[in-house]
Amino acid sequence: MTDAGNQTDAGRIETGQAETAPAGFASMADQAYAAIEELIVSGILPPRGFVSEKQLSAQTGIGRTPVREALKRLELDGMVTIVPSRGIMVTEVDVKLQLYVLDVRRELERLIARRAARYALPAERERCRAIAGEMLDAARSEDGMRFMHLDQEVNQLLDQCARNPVATQTIRPLRSLSRRFWFQNHHAHSGSLEDGARTHAELMLAIHKSDVEAAAAASDRLMAYVEAYARETLRYPFADHSSADRAAR
Question: What is the pLDDT of residues 151-174, one digit of tens each?
């Protein structure tokens, strides 16, 4: 099967669409998912706030059927809770959940980084090099929104280069939870944008150079930064990078 075929199948798996789904529906559900996820991640839809399908449809400019499908995925991802007779409630940011997320995400990110360094195409490697510089520029200008959008592009580029739709599907909700946590807390961290940009850039440059081991090591450093960031934000009393089980006690 070709890469294009793999991507098509992965898209069907990710959106939960059957082979008989109407043409264009899956792509609209994907667009609805991305739009609503950004509203949640950016805090426009605040934790514990309620919203309706009708409101989300009007806010995103997307029909209610794909919005409903996107909300089902977001509920599975832990971003919203659908409450009968009340609407859709955005879930709260939970420190224990975030640390559990990072325990799992660390292993998956290392796998994806290794595969990306091994399987990226020449044009993709050039984009990795370019986006490293763009993230550093966003950090220097303290443009948090641009940084968040570039971070999302980095994730998409990593998945594209790694060519493993199972890993992509599994890690997607973990990244969403991490992105929301970062965006809602980054103003409390002096220098956090530059630290984050540097660790991202190291990873993307390792992939650009096809250095599998350097990419794996850079991925681990990035996850160590993300975990330290979470602990500092919430003033957790653990300075080391031990498992989430210790932190949750």
Answer: 999 999 999 999 999 999 999 999
C-alpha 80/C-alpha 112 separation (Å) is 27
Q: Which residues pair with 43 in a beta bridge?
A: none
Query: Do 169 and 243 belong to one domain?
Result: yes
Phi–psi pair at 142, nearest 5 degrees: 55, 40
**Could you tell me the residue range of the domain that residue 48 belongs to?**
3-90
Phi/psi for 141 (5° steps) reads -90, 0
Q: Count the neighbouring beta carbons within 10 Å of the beta carbon of residue 118.
A: 15
CATH (domain of 230) = 1.20.120.530
Express each pLDDT in 191-225 by its tens digit.
578 888 999 999 999 999 999 999 999 999 999 99
Q: What is the pTM of this model?
A: 0.78
